[in-house]
Amino acid sequence: MRIPRTTAGPALAALLAATAGCADVEGLRSEGDLGTAHAPQTLWKEFRPAPPDPGQQSGSAAVVPGLPRVPGGDMAGVNALDVVRADITSATARDGGSGRLVDPRAVQRLALCTRAADGGPNCPVRPAVLHDLTGNGRKELITALDIDGRTSELRVYTVQADGRVARILNRHGVLEGVEVAAEHLAVREPTSNPAYVAVSDYVWDPRAATMNLSQLTLDQCHGAGDSGTGGTPCGP
C-alpha cells in the first residue's frame, strides 16, 4: 500500500515568513511587508447539523439481517452478492428510499444482477476481495457497488463472534483507488485540485469492532502524460 505523502507547504510558509526582510539568500529574497495576520472568521455559528443515524456512520458496525450465521468466522465461504443484496434491502427499508442510509439507485442497479454466482455480466457488484483486516487470521469480505459511471459504495463485511455477518465499513464516493495492507484499507479519491488525491486510511478498531478512519492526507500525483517523478498517476 502506498504511504500517503503530504507536502511541506506549512513548514515552507513559516520559513519564508521568518526570513522576510532578512539578508538575501540564494534564490530567496524579501517580499517586503507580508500583511497583517487575521484570526479565522467562523461562518454560520447558529447552524448545527443533526447527529447522524447509526447506519450513516461509515465506521459503525451493523449486523446484516436475513443472512444465515457463518460457522468458523470466515467470509471466504459467503456469497458476496447475497450479502450486498441483504444489506441494501434492509437499509432501503429502514430509510424509506430517502437516501440517508443507501443511494436510492442502488436497488435499481442490483436488479441488473442475475442469480448466477457472479451476478452475470451486467451486475454492478465488483468481484469480492478477501483479506484479513482484523488481524485474527480470518478473512473479511471487501466489495463495492457501482452506482453510476463515477460513484460507488465501498462495503466491508466481517463475521462476528456469534457467527452473524456485520458491515464494518460503508463508504460512498469516487473510488479512484482502493488498497489493502495488513489491517489497513486506503481509499484514494480525486480532489478539486488535479495535482492531488485524498487518501483515507481506515484501520481496524478492536474496541469499536469497526474500521475507523485513522488518517486523511493528500497525495501528490501526476497525469498520465507527465513524465515527472514524485507522486502517483491520477485518474482522468
Summary?
With 236 residues, the chain is of the alpha+beta class. It has helices spanning 9-19, 80-95, 105-110, and strands at 62-63, 129-131, 140-146, 152-159, 165-173, 177-181, 184-190, 196-205, 210-222, 232-233. Helix content is 14%, strand content 28%.
Model description:
By secondary structure, this protein is α+β, with helices and mostly antiparallel strands. The chain has helices at 9-19, 80-95, 105-110, and strands spanning 62-63, 129-131, 140-146, 152-159, 165-173, 177-181, 184-190, 196-205, 210-222, 232-233. The strands form two sheets. A five-stranded antiparallel β-sheet has the order 1-5-4-3-2. A five-stranded mixed β-sheet has the order 6-7-8-9-10, with no helix packed on it. It is globular and about 70 Å long.
